[in-house]
Amino acid sequence: MNPLPPAYGWLDELRPLPRMLEEARKLYGTFEVAGPASNPLILEWAKEVGLARTYLEDGIPWCGLFMAVVAKRGGKPIVEGPLWARNWAKFGKAADKAQLGDALVFRRGQGSGHVGLYVGEDYGAYHVLGGNQSDGVTITRIAKDRCIAVRRPAYRKVPATAKPVQLAATGTLSTNEA
Length: 178
Known about the structure:
Blueprint: H1 19-27, H2 40-48, H3 63-73, E1 93-94, E2 103-108, E3 112-121, E4 125-133, E5 136-143, E6 147-152, E7 173-174
Parallel strand pairs: 5-7
Antiparallel strand pairs: 1-6, 2-3, 2-6, 3-4, 4-5
Helix pairs in contact: 1-3, 2-3
């Protein structure tokens, strides 16, 4: 498992993590292959979730693919059309306030979107663990005013760690998660 940045190292000590977040943590540090080649691991994710016919190379936006694979591995349902980030606004149930492990859906550009998992927040941004953030599975800060949906996975028993997390406002704000 790739090490997290020091500001997020606490995630490796916190147990139990929400299952989707636990699965996402295992994938932290996976990156696209530069140029015309694709990372075979990302293409394997497409096979794992039944999207091998529609997802052919890692140059295609893959935040929704990342969410599909962590949802599947975390025992949660995958939304219909998971490659379209905004479709994740139908995942689980709506929540008023984000907490650890929730899916966050953001608007990006003209009609497109981004999706990832909440790991915390500061006064103006959510800290998001997601795929296709700077071409990899990373944690980035995304302005709260871009969030269009907070969606909570269905739990049989809510993990004790599934709570809001306040973090320092360090690092730049992402403006385009590709």
